[in-house]
Protein backbone atom coordinates (compact mmCIF):
# COMPACT_ATOMS: atom_id res chain seq x y z
CA UNK A 1 0.00 0.00 0.00
CA UNK A 2 1.18 3.55 -0.77
CA UNK A 3 2.43 5.42 2.28
CA UNK A 4 0.49 8.66 2.90
CA UNK A 5 1.40 11.24 5.54
CA UNK A 6 -1.03 13.36 7.53
CA UNK A 7 -0.85 16.66 5.68
CA UNK A 8 -1.30 19.96 7.55
CA UNK A 9 0.24 22.19 4.88
CA UNK A 10 -1.37 25.59 4.35
CA UNK A 11 -1.49 25.25 0.56
CA UNK A 12 -1.00 23.50 -1.67
CA UNK A 13 -2.64 21.18 0.78
CA UNK A 14 -3.93 17.63 1.09
CA UNK A 15 -6.71 16.48 -1.21
CA UNK A 16 -9.35 13.84 -0.45
CA UNK A 17 -7.89 10.42 -1.18
CA UNK A 18 -10.88 9.19 -3.24
CA UNK A 19 -10.46 12.19 -5.58
CA UNK A 20 -6.81 11.27 -6.13
CA UNK A 21 -7.55 7.57 -6.52
CA UNK A 22 -10.11 8.36 -9.17
CA UNK A 23 -7.46 10.37 -11.03
CA UNK A 24 -5.04 7.48 -10.68
CA UNK A 25 -7.56 5.03 -12.12
CA UNK A 26 -8.44 7.30 -15.01
CA UNK A 27 -4.97 8.63 -15.68
CA UNK A 28 -3.92 6.64 -18.74
CA UNK A 29 -7.32 6.23 -20.35
CA UNK A 30 -9.64 9.10 -19.57
CA UNK A 31 -13.30 8.60 -20.55
CA UNK A 32 -12.37 5.91 -23.09
CA UNK A 33 -10.19 8.31 -25.10
CA UNK A 34 -7.00 6.25 -24.77
CA UNK A 35 -5.33 9.42 -23.43
CA UNK A 36 -4.98 11.15 -20.10
CA UNK A 37 -7.15 14.22 -19.52
CA UNK A 38 -3.94 16.28 -19.86
CA UNK A 39 -3.52 15.09 -23.43
CA UNK A 40 -7.06 15.67 -24.66
CA UNK A 41 -8.16 18.81 -26.51
CA UNK A 42 -9.95 21.36 -24.37
CA UNK A 43 -12.49 21.55 -27.21
CA UNK A 44 -13.27 17.81 -27.06
CA UNK A 45 -16.63 16.55 -25.82
CA UNK A 46 -14.88 14.41 -23.19
CA UNK A 47 -13.12 17.41 -21.64
CA UNK A 48 -16.21 19.56 -22.02
CA UNK A 49 -18.19 17.15 -19.84
CA UNK A 50 -15.63 17.58 -17.03
CA UNK A 51 -15.61 21.37 -17.42
CA UNK A 52 -19.41 21.56 -17.27
CA UNK A 53 -19.56 19.19 -14.33
CA UNK A 54 -17.04 21.22 -12.32
CA UNK A 55 -19.13 24.36 -12.89
CA UNK A 56 -22.43 22.59 -12.17
CA UNK A 57 -21.09 21.04 -8.95
CA UNK A 58 -19.81 24.42 -7.76
CA UNK A 59 -23.28 25.89 -8.29
CA UNK A 60 -24.98 22.95 -6.62
CA UNK A 61 -22.70 22.65 -3.58
CA UNK A 62 -22.72 26.40 -2.91
CA UNK A 63 -26.42 26.77 -3.75
CA UNK A 64 -25.67 29.60 -6.17
CA UNK A 65 -28.70 31.51 -7.47
CA UNK A 66 -29.03 31.73 -11.28
CA UNK A 67 -27.66 35.30 -11.40
CA UNK A 68 -24.14 34.07 -10.54
CA UNK A 69 -21.56 32.88 -13.07
CA UNK A 70 -18.77 30.46 -12.21
CA UNK A 71 -15.43 31.18 -13.91
CA UNK A 72 -12.42 28.87 -13.94
CA UNK A 73 -9.42 31.15 -14.37
CA UNK A 74 -5.67 31.18 -13.79
CA UNK A 75 -3.17 33.40 -12.00
CA UNK A 76 -4.29 32.59 -8.46
CA UNK A 77 -5.56 35.19 -6.03
CA UNK A 78 -2.59 37.34 -7.02
CA UNK A 79 -3.90 38.00 -10.52
CA UNK A 80 -7.38 38.58 -9.11
CA UNK A 81 -5.97 41.27 -6.76
CA UNK A 82 -5.26 43.28 -9.93
CA UNK A 83 -8.14 42.12 -12.16
CA UNK A 84 -10.75 43.21 -9.63
CA UNK A 85 -9.86 46.92 -9.61
CA UNK A 86 -8.97 46.89 -13.32
CA UNK A 87 -12.47 45.68 -14.16
CA UNK A 88 -14.57 47.14 -11.39
CA UNK A 89 -13.00 50.43 -10.37
CA UNK A 90 -13.37 52.32 -13.67
CA UNK A 91 -14.80 55.81 -14.08
CA UNK A 92 -13.79 57.15 -10.67
CA UNK A 93 -15.48 54.35 -8.75
CA UNK A 94 -14.29 53.88 -5.18
CA UNK A 95 -14.01 50.84 -2.95
CA UNK A 96 -13.28 50.04 0.70
CA UNK A 97 -10.85 47.33 1.76
CA UNK A 98 -10.76 45.67 5.18
CA UNK A 99 -7.17 44.85 6.06
CA UNK A 100 -7.00 41.87 8.39
CA UNK A 101 -3.79 40.09 7.45
CA UNK A 102 -0.88 39.52 5.16
CA UNK A 103 -3.08 38.64 2.15
CA UNK A 104 -5.67 41.34 2.72
CA UNK A 105 -2.83 43.84 2.84
CA UNK A 106 -1.43 42.50 -0.42
CA UNK A 107 -4.86 42.73 -2.07
CA UNK A 108 -5.14 46.35 -0.94
CA UNK A 109 -1.65 47.29 -2.16
CA UNK A 110 -2.31 45.78 -5.58
CA UNK A 111 -5.67 47.55 -5.85
CA UNK A 112 -4.01 50.85 -4.94
CA UNK A 113 -1.53 50.32 -7.78
CA UNK A 114 -4.50 50.33 -10.13
CA UNK A 115 -6.89 52.80 -8.54
CA UNK A 116 -4.73 54.88 -6.15
CA UNK A 117 -6.66 56.80 -3.50
CA UNK A 118 -9.97 55.49 -4.76
CA UNK A 119 -9.04 52.37 -2.82
CA UNK A 120 -9.67 53.21 0.83
CA UNK A 121 -8.90 51.28 3.97
CA UNK A 122 -12.19 50.71 5.81
CA UNK A 123 -10.44 49.15 8.81
CA UNK A 124 -7.12 47.59 9.66
CA UNK A 125 -5.89 45.50 12.56
CA UNK A 126 -2.24 45.83 11.57
CA UNK A 127 -1.49 47.58 14.86
CA UNK A 128 -2.66 44.44 16.62
CA UNK A 129 -0.38 42.41 14.32
CA UNK A 130 -3.59 41.08 12.76
CA UNK A 131 -4.21 38.97 15.86
CA UNK A 132 -7.93 39.80 15.67
CA UNK A 133 -10.54 41.10 13.23
CA UNK A 134 -11.92 44.64 13.43
CA UNK A 135 -15.11 45.15 15.43
CA UNK A 136 -18.22 46.53 13.74
CA UNK A 137 -17.63 50.06 15.11
CA UNK A 138 -14.10 50.12 13.68
CA UNK A 139 -15.24 49.63 10.06
CA UNK A 140 -15.84 52.79 8.05
CA UNK A 141 -17.40 52.35 4.64
CA UNK A 142 -18.12 55.33 2.37
CA UNK A 143 -21.68 55.79 1.03
CA UNK A 144 -20.14 55.99 -2.46
CA UNK A 145 -18.41 52.61 -2.22
CA UNK A 146 -18.79 50.20 -5.19
CA UNK A 147 -17.78 47.27 -3.00
CA UNK A 148 -16.13 46.24 0.25
CA UNK A 149 -13.24 43.83 -0.17
CA UNK A 150 -12.39 41.44 2.64
CA UNK A 151 -10.53 38.18 3.19
CA UNK A 152 -12.88 35.68 4.76
CA UNK A 153 -10.11 33.56 6.25
CA UNK A 154 -6.68 34.93 7.06
CA UNK A 155 -4.47 31.97 6.26
CA UNK A 156 -1.32 33.34 7.85
CA UNK A 157 -2.75 34.68 11.10
CA UNK A 158 -5.54 32.14 11.67
CA UNK A 159 -8.51 34.50 11.94
CA UNK A 160 -11.80 33.97 10.15
CA UNK A 161 -15.01 35.95 9.66
CA UNK A 162 -17.64 33.59 11.09
CA UNK A 163 -20.14 36.37 10.59
CA UNK A 164 -19.31 38.54 7.63
CA UNK A 165 -18.47 42.22 8.29
CA UNK A 166 -21.35 44.66 8.73
CA UNK A 167 -21.11 47.18 5.90
CA UNK A 168 -24.70 48.26 5.22
CA UNK A 169 -25.90 47.38 1.74
CA UNK A 170 -22.56 47.71 -0.02
CA UNK A 171 -21.79 44.45 -1.89
CA UNK A 172 -18.84 42.33 -0.87
CA UNK A 173 -15.88 41.17 -2.89
CA UNK A 174 -14.19 38.40 -1.03
CA UNK A 175 -10.92 36.48 -1.18
CA UNK A 176 -11.98 32.98 -0.09
CA UNK A 177 -8.70 31.30 -1.05
CA UNK A 178 -8.40 29.47 2.23
CA UNK A 179 -12.00 28.75 3.08
CA UNK A 180 -13.85 28.13 -0.15
CA UNK A 181 -16.61 25.56 0.36
CA UNK A 182 -16.04 24.58 3.96
CA UNK A 183 -19.60 25.47 4.95
CA UNK A 184 -22.84 26.69 3.39
CA UNK A 185 -23.49 30.46 3.46
CA UNK A 186 -25.81 33.01 1.88
CA UNK A 187 -24.02 34.21 -1.21
CA UNK A 188 -26.47 37.01 -2.06
CA UNK A 189 -24.48 39.93 -0.52
CA UNK A 190 -21.43 38.97 -2.61
CA UNK A 191 -20.70 40.59 -5.98
CA UNK A 192 -17.57 38.52 -6.54
CA UNK A 193 -15.77 35.69 -4.73
CA UNK A 194 -12.38 34.37 -5.75
CA UNK A 195 -9.57 32.10 -4.63
CA UNK A 196 -6.92 29.67 -5.79
CA UNK A 197 -8.04 26.03 -5.67
CA UNK A 198 -4.96 24.77 -3.87
CA UNK A 199 -6.36 24.60 -0.34
CA UNK A 200 -9.88 23.23 -0.24
CA UNK A 201 -10.60 22.49 -3.87
CA UNK A 202 -7.80 21.03 -5.94
CA UNK A 203 -4.30 21.74 -7.22
CA UNK A 204 -2.80 25.19 -7.80
CA UNK A 205 -3.37 26.63 -11.25
CA UNK A 206 -7.15 27.00 -11.09
CA UNK A 207 -8.67 30.21 -9.72
CA UNK A 208 -12.31 29.73 -8.90
CA UNK A 209 -14.19 32.99 -9.44
CA UNK A 210 -17.88 33.52 -8.82
CA UNK A 211 -19.37 36.73 -10.13
CA UNK A 212 -22.86 38.18 -9.89
CA UNK A 213 -24.46 39.40 -13.12
CA UNK A 214 -24.68 43.06 -12.06
CA UNK A 215 -20.94 42.97 -11.26
CA UNK A 216 -20.26 41.41 -14.64
CA UNK A 217 -22.18 44.29 -16.21
CA UNK A 218 -19.93 46.75 -14.37
CA UNK A 219 -16.91 45.23 -16.20
CA UNK A 220 -17.23 47.51 -19.17
CA UNK A 221 -13.50 48.09 -19.82
CA UNK A 222 -12.65 47.58 -23.49
CA UNK A 223 -9.04 48.65 -23.19
CA UNK A 224 -7.73 45.85 -20.99
CA UNK A 225 -5.80 42.91 -22.41
CA UNK A 226 -8.42 40.28 -23.19
CA UNK A 227 -7.35 37.75 -20.57
CA UNK A 228 -7.87 40.33 -17.82
CA UNK A 229 -11.53 40.92 -18.70
CA UNK A 230 -14.04 38.94 -16.65
CA UNK A 231 -16.69 39.57 -19.30
CA UNK A 232 -14.79 37.70 -21.97
CA UNK A 233 -14.29 34.68 -19.71
CA UNK A 234 -17.99 34.71 -18.81
CA UNK A 235 -19.07 34.98 -22.46
CA UNK A 236 -16.76 32.10 -23.42
CA UNK A 237 -17.68 29.93 -20.41
CA UNK A 238 -14.01 29.96 -19.25
CA UNK A 239 -12.88 28.52 -22.58
CA UNK A 240 -11.59 31.77 -24.09
CA UNK A 241 -8.07 30.39 -23.86
CA UNK A 242 -6.81 26.91 -22.95
CA UNK A 243 -7.98 26.43 -19.37
CA UNK A 244 -5.92 24.50 -16.80
CA UNK A 245 -7.60 21.26 -17.81
CA UNK A 246 -5.90 18.88 -15.41
CA UNK A 247 -6.55 21.19 -12.45
CA UNK A 248 -10.20 21.52 -13.43
CA UNK A 249 -10.43 17.75 -13.76
CA UNK A 250 -9.12 17.32 -10.18
CA UNK A 251 -11.46 20.08 -9.00
CA UNK A 252 -14.32 18.06 -10.52
CA UNK A 253 -13.15 14.94 -8.67
CA UNK A 254 -12.94 16.82 -5.35
CA UNK A 255 -16.37 18.40 -5.78
CA UNK A 256 -17.97 15.10 -6.81
CA UNK A 257 -16.46 13.51 -3.72
CA UNK A 258 -17.73 16.41 -1.56
CA UNK A 259 -21.21 15.86 -2.89
CA UNK A 260 -21.01 12.12 -2.22
CA UNK A 261 -20.24 12.69 1.47
CA UNK A 262 -23.21 14.97 2.04
CA UNK A 263 -22.12 18.35 0.68
CA UNK A 264 -21.16 21.46 2.62
CA UNK A 265 -23.36 20.78 5.66
CA UNK A 266 -21.54 17.51 6.38
CA UNK A 267 -18.17 19.13 5.64
CA UNK A 268 -18.96 21.98 8.04
CA UNK A 269 -19.78 19.54 10.85
CA UNK A 270 -16.44 17.78 10.40
CA UNK A 271 -14.53 21.08 10.26
CA UNK A 272 -16.17 22.32 13.45
CA UNK A 273 -15.33 19.08 15.23
CA UNK A 274 -11.66 19.38 14.17
CA UNK A 275 -11.45 22.98 15.40
CA UNK A 276 -13.08 22.03 18.70
CA UNK A 277 -10.51 19.27 19.25
CA UNK A 278 -7.53 21.46 18.43
CA UNK A 279 -8.56 24.62 20.28
CA UNK A 280 -9.71 22.41 23.14
CA UNK A 281 -6.18 21.08 23.51
CA UNK A 282 -4.58 24.53 23.14
CA UNK A 283 -6.91 25.98 25.82
CA UNK A 284 -6.45 23.02 28.16
CA UNK A 285 -2.69 23.57 28.11
CA UNK A 286 -2.73 27.36 27.83
CA UNK A 287 0.42 27.60 29.94
CA UNK A 288 2.27 25.69 27.23
CA UNK A 289 0.42 26.28 23.93
CA UNK A 290 -0.30 30.00 23.37
CA UNK A 291 -2.82 30.81 20.66
CA UNK A 292 -1.93 33.68 18.31
CA UNK A 293 -5.49 35.00 17.94
CA UNK A 294 -6.58 37.20 20.84
CA UNK A 295 -10.38 36.88 20.48
CA UNK A 296 -11.90 33.42 20.52
CA UNK A 297 -14.80 34.44 18.27
CA UNK A 298 -12.27 35.28 15.54
CA UNK A 299 -10.42 31.98 15.60
CA UNK A 300 -10.17 30.22 12.27
CA UNK A 301 -11.56 26.78 11.68
CA UNK A 302 -9.08 26.36 8.81
CA UNK A 303 -5.72 27.55 10.18
CA UNK A 304 -4.89 27.17 13.85
CA UNK A 305 -1.83 29.18 14.97
CA UNK A 306 -0.08 28.73 18.30
CA UNK A 307 3.30 29.04 19.91
CA UNK A 308 5.21 26.81 22.27
CA UNK A 309 7.19 28.41 25.12
CA UNK A 310 10.36 28.83 22.99
CA UNK A 311 11.25 28.81 19.27
CA UNK A 312 13.48 25.79 20.02
CA UNK A 313 10.46 23.87 21.29
CA UNK A 314 8.50 24.95 18.17
CA UNK A 315 11.26 23.39 16.04
CA UNK A 316 11.36 20.25 18.13
CA UNK A 317 7.56 19.93 17.87
CA UNK A 318 7.69 20.17 14.06
CA UNK A 319 10.54 17.64 13.85
CA UNK A 320 8.96 15.09 16.17
CA UNK A 321 5.56 15.46 14.49
CA UNK A 322 7.23 14.72 11.18
CA UNK A 323 8.73 11.55 12.62
CA UNK A 324 5.22 10.61 13.72
CA UNK A 325 3.93 11.03 10.15
CA UNK A 326 2.53 14.58 10.32
CA UNK A 327 3.88 17.30 8.01
CA UNK A 328 3.32 20.99 7.27
CA UNK A 329 3.15 22.30 10.84
CA UNK A 330 5.73 25.09 10.74
CA UNK A 331 4.16 28.55 11.15
CA UNK A 332 4.31 31.18 8.39
CA UNK A 333 7.74 32.82 8.23
CA UNK A 334 6.59 36.27 9.50
CA UNK A 335 4.84 34.82 12.56
CA UNK A 336 6.75 31.67 13.50
CA UNK A 337 5.34 29.09 15.91
CA UNK A 338 3.04 26.34 14.70
CA UNK A 339 0.27 26.55 12.13
CA UNK A 340 -2.10 23.62 11.72
CA UNK A 341 -4.08 23.89 8.50
CA UNK A 342 -7.16 21.73 8.70
CA UNK A 343 -8.79 22.12 5.32
CA UNK A 344 -11.61 19.87 4.17
CA UNK A 345 -9.38 16.89 3.28
CA UNK A 346 -7.95 16.70 6.81
CA UNK A 347 -10.12 14.21 8.69
CA UNK A 348 -11.28 14.25 12.31
CA UNK A 349 -9.05 11.20 12.85
CA UNK A 350 -6.02 13.09 11.52
CA UNK A 351 -6.70 15.84 14.04
CA UNK A 352 -7.18 13.31 16.85
CA UNK A 353 -3.76 11.89 16.03
CA UNK A 354 -2.25 15.38 16.25
CA UNK A 355 -4.05 16.16 19.51
CA UNK A 356 -2.74 12.91 21.05
CA UNK A 357 0.72 13.95 19.93
CA UNK A 358 0.23 17.42 21.47
CA UNK A 359 -0.87 15.89 24.78
CA UNK A 360 2.19 13.66 24.80
CA UNK A 361 4.46 16.58 23.87
CA UNK A 362 3.27 18.63 26.87
CA UNK A 363 3.82 15.70 29.20
CA UNK A 364 7.40 15.27 28.02
CA UNK A 365 8.38 18.92 27.61
CA UNK A 366 5.97 20.95 29.72
N1 LIG B 1 -5.17 35.03 -0.31
C1 LIG B 1 -5.16 34.13 0.68
C2 LIG B 1 -6.15 34.23 1.79
C3 LIG B 1 -4.20 33.10 0.65
O1 LIG B 1 -4.18 32.20 1.63
C4 LIG B 1 -3.29 33.03 -0.42
C5 LIG B 1 -2.28 31.93 -0.54
N2 LIG B 1 -1.73 31.44 0.58
C6 LIG B 1 -3.33 34.01 -1.41
C7 LIG B 1 -4.30 34.98 -1.32
C8 LIG B 1 -2.39 33.98 -2.56
O2 LIG B 1 -2.84 33.02 -3.43
P1 LIG B 1 -2.10 32.66 -4.78
O3 LIG B 1 -0.74 32.19 -4.42
O4 LIG B 1 -2.98 31.59 -5.35
O5 LIG B 1 -2.09 33.87 -5.63
Automatic annotation (TrEMBL):
The chain positions of domain Aminotransferase class V read 6-353
What Gene3D superfamilies does the entry give?
Aspartate Aminotransferase, domain 1 (3.90.1150.10), Type I PLP-dependent aspartate aminotransferase-like (Major domain) (3.40.640.10)
GO MF annotations for this entry? transaminase activity
Catalyses which reaction(s): 4-(phosphooxy)-L-threonine + 2-oxoglutarate = (R)-3-hydroxy-2-oxo-4-phosphooxybutanoate + L-glutamate; O-phospho-L-serine + 2-oxoglutarate = 3-phosphooxypyruvate + L-glutamate
**Uppermost EC category:** transferase
The compartments listed are: Cytoplasm
Q: Does the keyword Amino-acid biosynthesis apply?
A: yes
Give, as in the UniProt entry, the pathway in which the protein acts. Answer: Cofactor biosynthesis; pyridoxine 5'-phosphate biosynthesis; pyridoxine 5'-phosphate from D-erythrose 4-phosphate: step 3/5; Amino-acid biosynthesis; L-serine biosynthesis; L-serine from 3-phospho-D-glycerate: step 2/3
Cofactor(s) needed by this chain? pyridoxal 5'-phosphate
Cofactor binding description: Binds 1 pyridoxal phosphate per subunit.
Keyword hit for Amino-acid biosynthesis: yes
So where does L-glutamate get bound? 43
Q: Where does the source fall among the domains of life?
A: Bacteria
Quick one: which residues bind pyridoxal 5'-phosphate?
Answer: 103, 155, 175, 198, 241-242
Q: Which InterPro entries match?
A: Aminotrans_V_dom (IPR000192), Pser_aminoTfrase (IPR022278), PyrdxlP-dep_Trfase (IPR015424), PyrdxlP-dep_Trfase_major (IPR015421), PyrdxlP-dep_Trfase_small (IPR015422)
Q: Which residues carry this modification: N6-(pyridoxal phosphate)lysine?
A: 199
What UniProt keywords apply to this chain's record, in alphabetical order?
A: Amino-acid biosynthesis, Aminotransferase, Cytoplasm, Pyridoxal phosphate, Pyridoxine biosynthesis, Serine biosynthesis, Transferase
Write the Enzyme Commission number(s) for this entry: 2.6.1.52
Q: Give the multimer and partner information.
A: Homodimer.
Q: List, alphabetically, the NCBIfam families matched.
A: PRK05355.1, serC_1
Family recorded in the similarity comment: Belongs to the class-V pyridoxal-phosphate-dependent aminotransferase family. SerC subfamily.
Function as written in the Swiss-Prot or TrEMBL entry: Catalyzes the reversible conversion of 3-phosphohydroxypyruvate to phosphoserine and of 3-hydroxy-2-oxo-4-phosphonooxybutanoate to phosphohydroxythreonine.
Return the protein name.
Answer: Phosphoserine aminotransferase
Organism, scientific name: Geothrix oryzae
Amino acid sequence: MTHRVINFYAGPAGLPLPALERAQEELLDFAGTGMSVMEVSHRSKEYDAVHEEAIALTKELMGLPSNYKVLLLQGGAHLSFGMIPLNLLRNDKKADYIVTGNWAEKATKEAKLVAGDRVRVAASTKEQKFSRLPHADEIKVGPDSAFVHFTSNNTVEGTQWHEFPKVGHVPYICDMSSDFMWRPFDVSPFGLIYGGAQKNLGPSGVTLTIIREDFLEMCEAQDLPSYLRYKIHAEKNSLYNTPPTFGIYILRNVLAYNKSIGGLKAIEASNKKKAELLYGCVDKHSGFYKGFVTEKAHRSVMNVDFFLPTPELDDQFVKEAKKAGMVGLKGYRDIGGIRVSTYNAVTVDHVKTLVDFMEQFVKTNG
